[in-house]
């Protein structure tokens, strides 16, 4: 390698920007090639424009991928305190919520993008936007990058930080997987994650727009695989909202394996089963004239009640006096286990992240270096690493970008 290493970074997202700053601070000459008109579009969209930038409680269990433990080194070397120190160094102040989620103090994702970009400019990183890299070649010592109209030569090291095909409207592609394959890397099939779930009929599409809190249970091949409680949004196609997104990784992964996937909704998680049974029993006994529909409207949204009763095959106009023990049991069961088959996810376009990617088997977890090709590094979501909701995905992008750049600048 020449005295001042020349490093190319494909992708100007979170991982690419962090890699560019780190490599330039190490003294390398750095180029970012970005297909969008501007860098950091996913950063801008993240956390509903607030950017849940990291989490104070980072643990390997918050990540999925075929090779368990791949993230250990990255989370250890570039932990939250390291990240916080880095943020201070670029003038980015953070707000830590009581649940451990971290946001910029301004609560604005655009601050993050702006300060990363500013730092790149100050370090003379060349940012080449509107430049989709189509092909990468190497003569074993140097890399050449080809766009449709240009060719960029003479790079000592290459960091592929092209993200995933999630949210293609923000620039998401799986180009990085293609580049990896050319250099002999294996690929793990991708699937959308942190995404809404499509439910099969009799799911009532008329529920679209109703919001509630619920406990969701994911059933794969009829076995309970995961549970989570939180906001639930009914949509035309099925379910979204934080609770559904949190279950979506397991559901999506099971779907690509062609396993049977179902979700059970507990619409009243705040009640213990016995307590709910006793409350409902008392109410139906004391309000004998009231219709069962009117009675249930005091417990769950009035928009949900007719559909719930329909699925119990009970006429909503039935007076409580006529609701027998069997019908009451059925209502109770449905309130706590309203079950639907999951047919598919809402797709990459609506997914926050993608599972799968470049297999980490041939990647050094301490440096993100390819074990197949000298001078080649990977960072961020292009790798077969996907995190839970809560700042974990962005943190892995920062951490892997940092490790890759440190190693690329000294190799
Ligand atoms: C709506 C939404 C909200 C999210 N909210 C959060 C959140 O709050 N917290 C969190 O932790 N995570 C969140 N995520 C996930 C997080 O944004 C990603 O995990 C993270 O941005 C991945 O960083 P990356 O650098 O690997 O990829 P990206 O940020 O996707 O960057 C990759 C870049 O490479 C470019 N590119 C792709 N192919 C090429 C090519 N051939 N040539 C040149 N350039 C190319 C793309 O245009 C893109 O700019 C969210 C994602 C979405 C979509």
CATH-level-4 superfamily name of the largest domain = FAD/NAD(P)-binding domain
The backbone outline, from C-alpha atoms, is: elongated
- Enumerate how many helices there are, as a single number: 12
Radius of gyration, CA atoms, in whole angstroms: 25 Å
> Which stretches are low in confidence, meaning pLDDT under 50 for 5 or more residues running?
none
Question: How many distinct domains?
Answer: 2
Strand order in the largest sheet? 13-16-15-14-17-18
| The CATH class of the largest domain | Alpha Beta
Polypeptide structure, described:
This protein is an alpha+beta fold and about 400 residues long. It folds into two domains: about 5-190 and about 350-410, FAD/NAD(P)-binding domain; about 195-345, Helicase, Ruva Protein, domain 3, CATH 1.10.8.50. About 30% of the residues lie in helices and about 25% in strands. The protein has twelve helices and 21 strands. The chain has helices at about 15-25, 40-45, 70-75, 80-90, 110-120, 175-180, 240-255, 275-285, 290-295, 305-310, 325-335, 390-410, and strands spanning about 5-10, 30-35, 55, 65, 95, 100-105, 125-130, 135-140, 145, 150-155, 155-160, 185-195, 195-200, 210-220, 225-235, 240, 260-265, 340-345, 355-360, 375-380, 385. The strands form six sheets. The protein has a six-stranded antiparallel β-barrel. Strands 7-2-1-11-20 form a five-stranded parallel sheet, with helices on both faces. Strands 3-6-5 form a three-stranded antiparallel sheet. Helix 1 runs parallel beside helix 5, helix 1 packs parallel to helix 12 (about 390-410) and helix 8 (about 275-285) crosses helix 11 (about 325-335). The radius of gyration is 25 Å and the shape is elongated. It binds flavin-adenine dinucleotide. Flavin-adenine dinucleotide binds near residues 12, 14 and 162. Flavin-adenine dinucleotide (FAD) binds near residues 11, 16, 36, 353 and 381.
């Amino acid at each position: 390698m020449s005295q001042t290493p020349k490093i190319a970074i494909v992708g100007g997202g979170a991982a690419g920007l962090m890699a560019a700053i780190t490599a330039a601070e190490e003294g390398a000459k750095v180029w970012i090639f970005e297909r969008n008109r501007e860098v950091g579009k996913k950063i801008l969209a993240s956390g509903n424009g607030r950017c849940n930038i990291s989490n104070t409680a980072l643990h390997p269990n918050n990540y999925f991928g075929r090779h368990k433990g791949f993230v250990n080194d990255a989370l250890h070397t570039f932990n939250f305190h390291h990240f916080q120190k880095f943020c201070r160094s670029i003038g980015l102040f953070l707000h830590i919520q009581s649940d451990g989620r971290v946001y910029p103090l301004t609560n604005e994702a655009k601050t993050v993008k702006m300060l990363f970009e500013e730092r790149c400019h100050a370090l003379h990183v060349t940012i080449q936007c509107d430049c989709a890299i189509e092909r990468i070649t190497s003569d074993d010592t140097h890399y050449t990058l080809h766009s449709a109209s240009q060719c960029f030569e003479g790079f000592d090291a290459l960091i592929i930080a092209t993200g995933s095909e999630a949210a293609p409207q923000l620039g998401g592609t799986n180009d990085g997987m293609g580049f990896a394959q050319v250099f002999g890397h294996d690929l793990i099939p991708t699937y959308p994650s942190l995404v809404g779930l499509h439910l099969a009929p009799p799911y009532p599409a008329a529920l679209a727009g109703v919001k509630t809190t619920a406990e969701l249970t994911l059933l794969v091949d009829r076995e309970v695989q995961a549970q989570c409680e939180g906001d639930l949004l009914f949509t035309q196609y099925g379910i979204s909202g934080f609770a559904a997104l949190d279950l979506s990784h397991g559901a999506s992964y099971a779907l690509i394996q062609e396993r049977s996937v179902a979700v059970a909704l507990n619409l009243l998680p705040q009640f213990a089963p016995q307590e709910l049974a006793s409350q409902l029993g008392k109410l139906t006994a004391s309000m004998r004239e009231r219709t069962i529909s009117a009675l249930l409207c005091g417990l769950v949204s009035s928009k949900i009640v007719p559909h719930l009763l329909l699925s119990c095959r009970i006429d909503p106009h039935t007076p409580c006096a006529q609701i027998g023990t069997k019908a009451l049991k059925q209502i109770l069961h449905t309130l706590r286990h309203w079950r639907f088959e999951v047919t598919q996810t809402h797709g990459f376009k609506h997914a926050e992240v993608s599972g799968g990617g470049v297999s980490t088997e041939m990647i050094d977890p301490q440096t993100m270096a390819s074990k197949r090709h000298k001078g080649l590094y990977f960072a961020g979501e292009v790798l077969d690493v996907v995190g839970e909701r809560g700042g974990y995905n962005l943190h892995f992008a920062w951490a892997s970008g940092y490790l890759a750049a440190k190693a690329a600048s000294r190799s």
